[in-house]
Amino acid sequence: MFCDEPTSGLDSFAACRVLEALRNMTNNGHTVLTTIHQPSSGVFAMLDEYEPPPSTTF
């Protein structure tokens, strides 16, 4: 599953519930790829892997 900013506009409680649902999907063998902008520390801690954005030089 690909989720583009699934926590945008949600408070931290709701965002954590969304991430828990996505976590349950991965625990059942599904692959989940998501983009999350400015996650709270609680949401960030729920992520398995983090790929930082590429460095940009001008």
TrEMBL record:
Recorded topology in the membrane: Multi-pass membrane protein
Gene3D superfamilies given in the database record: P-loop containing nucleotide triphosphate hydrolases (3.40.50.300)
Which UniProt key words apply to this protein?
Membrane, Transmembrane, Transmembrane helix, Transport
**Could you cite one Gene Ontology molecular function of this protein?**
ATPase-coupled transmembrane transporter activity
Q: Can you tell which superkingdom this protein's organism belongs to?
A: Eukaryota
Among its keywords, does the record have Endoplasmic reticulum? Answer: no
Location(s) in or outside the cell: Membrane
Q: Name one GO cellular component term.
A: plasma membrane
Has UniProt tagged this entry with the keyword Transmembrane?
A: yes
Mainly resides where? membrane
What the entry lists under InterPro entries is as follows: ABCG_transporters, P-loop_NTPase
The UniProt entry, under PANTHER family, shows: ABC TRANSPORTER G FAMILY MEMBER 28, PROTEIN SCARLET
Record protein name field: White protein
Species the sequence originates in: Paralvinella palmiformis
Provide the taxonomic classification.
Eukaryota, Metazoa, Spiralia, Lophotrochozoa, Annelida
